[in-house]
Amino acid sequence: MTAAVFFGCILIAFGPALALYVFTIATDALKIIFLIVGAFFWLVSLLLSSFVWFIAVQIWNDNALTQKKLLIFGVVVSVLLQEVFRFTYYRLLKKADKGLLAISQEETMPISIGQLSYVSGLGFGIMSGVFSLVNILSDSLGPGTVGIHGDSPQYFLASAFMTSAMVLLHIFWGVVFFDACEKKKFWALVLVFISHLLVSGLTFLNPHYERSLVPSYTILLLMAVWAFFTAGGSFRNLKLCLTCLDQDFLLSSHQPR
């Protein structure tokens, strides 16, 4: 039973990300490099967040009220640093344009900024998901049984679905964030930060998991739509893609410009 919970949670949490990796990145070495670098940037943001948390714990007194404030403070700092490092990664990629052109045999960039935003977002999301779920997966192997003292038996399942949402959200946040930086849409950057902070803050509603999962997946849907249109999508090509009515149009729409 524990093995089923363990592997089931892994598939729920990382199944969509694995499918995206296999079908869109796995055969492109350059995209894999940018994905790994994106994951590294998220890891550095976690390291700095941990350092700030350690200092804050040493300064503030240890009581129940302070612990709650510390948690809120930690979430805000963590989200802020993640978005700061997303911006830092964007600036680094922009400065690397000339280097990419130098190693490319073509006159244009070997990978577009839109593709970079998607790949870096997936890197951020995968690393975020791994660190948010690894301890939970360890606990799922026992000893002990979740729910034996009246706790929710849906703990592992809800955590896996929340992790899956965060992985996908990082992709959508990356697409919107990079586009906002390109077009200097500062309001979009603020909305990305607020939505990220809101989803992270919803975990404070646990163990009432339905109260955190429903709004989190609502935000996920809204961000997916926003990222779709930001990436150049439209109702027309979505309909053509789903119904396969006009294959010539679909092929021409993917030609390099």
TrEMBL record:
<keyword id="KW-0812">Transmembrane</keyword>
<feature type="transmembrane region" description="Helical">
    <location>
        <begin position="155"/>
        <end position="180"/>
    </location>
</feature>
<keyword id="KW-0914">Notch signaling pathway</keyword>
<keyword id="KW-0472">Membrane</keyword>
<dbReference type="InterPro" id="IPR009294">
    <property type="entry name" value="Aph-1"/>
</dbReference>
<feature type="transmembrane region" description="Helical">
    <location>
        <begin position="69"/>
        <end position="89"/>
    </location>
</feature>
<feature type="transmembrane region" description="Helical">
    <location>
        <begin position="217"/>
        <end position="235"/>
    </location>
</feature>
<protein>
    <recommendedName>
        <fullName>Gamma-secretase subunit APH-1</fullName>
    </recommendedName>
</protein>
<comment type="function">
    <text>Potential subunit of the gamma-secretase complex, an endoprotease complex that catalyzes the intramembrane cleavage of integral proteins such as Notch receptors.</text>
</comment>
<dbReference type="GO" id="GO:0016485">
    <property type="term" value="P:protein processing"/>
</dbReference>
<feature type="transmembrane region" description="Helical">
    <location>
        <begin position="29"/>
        <end position="57"/>
    </location>
</feature>
<keyword id="KW-1133">Transmembrane helix</keyword>
<dbReference type="GO" id="GO:0007219">
    <property type="term" value="P:Notch signaling pathway"/>
</dbReference>
<feature type="transmembrane region" description="Helical">
    <location>
        <begin position="109"/>
        <end position="134"/>
    </location>
</feature>
<comment type="subunit">
    <text>Component of the gamma-secretase complex.</text>
</comment>
<feature type="transmembrane region" description="Helical">
    <location>
        <begin position="186"/>
        <end position="205"/>
    </location>
</feature>
<dbReference type="Pfam" id="PF06105">
    <property type="entry name" value="Aph-1"/>
</dbReference>
<comment type="similarity">
    <text>Belongs to the APH-1 family.</text>
</comment>
<dbReference type="GO" id="GO:0070765">
    <property type="term" value="C:gamma-secretase complex"/>
</dbReference>
